[in-house]
Design goal:
Elements (H helix, E strand, L loop, with lengths): L13 H30 L8 E6 L2 E6 L4 E7 L13 E8 L4 E7 L5 E2 L5 E8 L5 E12 L2 E6 L12 E4 L6 E6 L2 E6 L4 E7 L1 E4 L8 E4 L5 E4 L5 E7 L1 E7 L2 E6 L2 E6 L4 E3 L5 E5 L7 E5 L2 E5 L5 E7 L1 E6 L2 E6 L2 E6 L4 E7 L1 E5 L4 E5 L5 E4 L5 E11 L4 E6 L2 E6 L4 E2 L1 H4 L6 E5 L2 E5 L5 E7 L1 E2 L8 E5 L2 E5 L5 E7 L9 E2 L2 E3 L7 E3 L2
Parallel strand pairs: 1-46
Antiparallel strand pairs: 1-2, 2-3, 4-5, 5-6, 7-8, 8-9, 10-11, 11-12, 12-13, 14-15, 15-16, 16-17, 18-19, 19-20, 20-21, 22-23, 23-24, 24-25, 26-27, 27-28, 28-29, 30-31, 31-32, 32-33, 33-34, 34-35, 35-36, 37-38, 38-39, 40-41, 41-42, 42-43, 44-45, 45-46
Length: 506
């Protein structure tokens, strides 16, 4: 029988329908309530994203958030480590025995709850650059269990088996970790993926980045080079390999003598120098070398083109050298023609900006363009390759220039700021990006707004702080004359030792 016509169907019992609907709604609500409870329980240990900083008060360590509110009471004897300032993963060390070197660790979140309790120890992985500036690998932790080590990320996900005898950072290279197992060394990335297997006696970085490759020492005590894909660049047969390379040339040591070779092992240069310091970008121009403690330049043919008369030489860019004579720095070309007179305490070349930063006797800086003309002078406060500007303190003002030496204002540089310092009639205040006065001109000095939204204010020799709306958070009561940097989070001020990166209240 056809059922295409609605009036052939039986009538609905509306009372029963409503009863069923109500029951179903109640059931769904029950599910959501249960789900909410479970979600809440689950989120008790969830990692939250927010800016955090370490504080030091009454000789104890704690944590604050970006509003200056205390998250972890300053109650720990040892400094708390925050591997990534945007995650509430706080590593605490306690019960330290300074005689034996033993200690315990625990990890807290922003609710002061202990997390990742399945491990005996959890530590951040420290690293440092050639200038001894220290940092922590941001998204990976070293964990210990049953005497062995493994890797875990900041959400608690285990990245490797807990199987290594030791784990450490590869010096000055971010996101590359050295692991040791049964006396042999390998390399992992920050996700725990194996880059080089644990089969070498020693591994070091060749250059400033992992893509430059690795110097490896084999079981026979010989050195070679492999790349990031574990492909052999130089066969492991050399007594030493220097961290000097370029244009597919490498510096190795055999029988106590440095030799310049090609990647296939062919010898390029072996005499006429004591030590090879740098391989120049232009392969025909060869190397910077030393002879009897002095620096010179030699072609790969052995022809000397810059006699070893200098206290130091370093290539700035192709054909130009930063040279030291009589204790002062200048710039010369390969014909020894002076481009910048040797009158500076130091000179650095910025490749991206194509400019020179030269430090003078009074510790101010000349900023010199690629025609060797001094374009600006002042105290260099900042240089940002990505945003393309540098900041100079010139007199009492801090000014900003792009790499074409055109002056720029803070509104163009710091586009996310809500306040900008401004000066009128010898006093400082703050304006918004439209130039409207937000804080009246009443202070002797102020700082620009920092990443947390706060700015310093100085009055009668004392410092305080305002928030991102210009409200006074801390009245000017802090004497910070001995502090290197003025920086606030709420009422908390950056400590004297800025390398330790902690905040306190005076």
């Amino acid at each position: 029988m056809s059922r295409g016509r609605r009036y052939d169907e039986p009538k609905l019992n509306l009372k029963k329908v409503f009863a069923v609907i109500l029951a179903f709604v109640a059931f769904i609500m029950c599910i959501f309530v249960i789900k909410g409870i479970l979600t809440k329980d689950k989120e008790e240990g969830k990692i939250t994203s927010k800016d955090y900083a370490v504080i030091f008060q009454n000789n104890k360590w704690g944590v604050i958030d970006s509003k200056g509110e205390i998250v972890i009471d300053p109650s720990y004897e040892e400094m708390i480590t925050i591997p990534n300032s945007k995650n509430d993963v706080f590593l605490c060390v306690y019960n330290v025995n300074y005689e034996t070197g033993e200690y315990k660790t625990k990890v807290l979140n922003s609710k002061n709850q202990e997390i990742f309790i399945q491990y005996e120890q959890i530590e951040a992985i420290a690293n440092q650059d050639v200038s001894q500036n220290m940092w922590y690998e941001e998204n990976v932790l070293k964990v210990k269990k049953d005497g062995k080590y493994g890797l875990m990320n900041l959400t608690g996900k285990q990245l490797t088996e807990v199987q290594y005898d030791q784990i450490s950072a590869l010096e000055a290279i971010k996101g590359v970790l050295k692991v040791t197992k049964e006396g042999k060394v390998g390399i992992l990335d920050k996700e725990g993926k194996e880059i080089l297997p644990t089969q070498s006696l020693e591994i070091t970085n060749l250059g400033k980045e992992s893509k430059d490759g690795f110097i490896v020492k084999n079981q026979e005590g010989k050195y070679g080079i492999v790349n990031y894909a574990n492909e052999v660049i130089l066969e492991a047969k050399y007594d030493e390999i220097a961290k000097v390379y370029g244009n597919d040339r490498y510096v190795v040591k055999q029988a106590g003598k440095q030799v310049l070779i090609k990647k296939d092992g062919t010898e390029v240069l072996s005499t006429g120098y004591d030590e090879i310091k740098q391989i120049l970008k232009n392969v025909d121009n060869g190397i910077i070398y030393t002879k009897d403690g002095k620096y010179g330049v030699m072609k790969t043919t052995g022809e000397v083109i810059v006699a070893p008369d200098y206290e130091e030489l370093k290539e700035a860019k192709s054909g130009l050298l930063i040279a030291k004579q009589n204790g002062k720095y200048g710039v010369i070309d390969l014909q020894k023609v002076s481009k910048i007179e040797p009158s500076y305490l130091s000179i650095c070349y910025n490749e991206k900006a194509d400019l020179y930063v030269a430090e003078k006797e009074d510790y101010t800086n000349d900023i010199i363009d690629n025609t060797f003309a001094v374009r600006q002078t002042g105290i260099l406060m900042d240089i940002d390759d990505e945003k393309g500007y540098f900041a100079l303190k010139q007199g009492e003002e801090e000014k900003y220039y792009n790499f074409k030496f055109e002056e720029r204002n803070m509104v163009e540089i710091k586009t996310s700021n809500t306040l900008y310092k401004s000066k009128k009639d010898g006093k400082y205040g703050f304006i918004d990006r439209d130039g409207k006065v937000v804080v009246d001109y009443q202070y002797d000095d102020v700082t620009e707004q920092n990443q947390y939204g706060y700015a310093g204010i100085k009055k009668d020799g004392l410092w305080g702080a305002v928030d991102n709306k210009g409200n006074v958070i801390q009245e000017p009561t802090y004497n910070l004359e001995e502090y290197l940097k003025i920086d606030f989070i709420g009422r908390w001020h950056l400590g004297k030792d800025i390398n330790m990166n902690y905040y306190n209240q005076l």
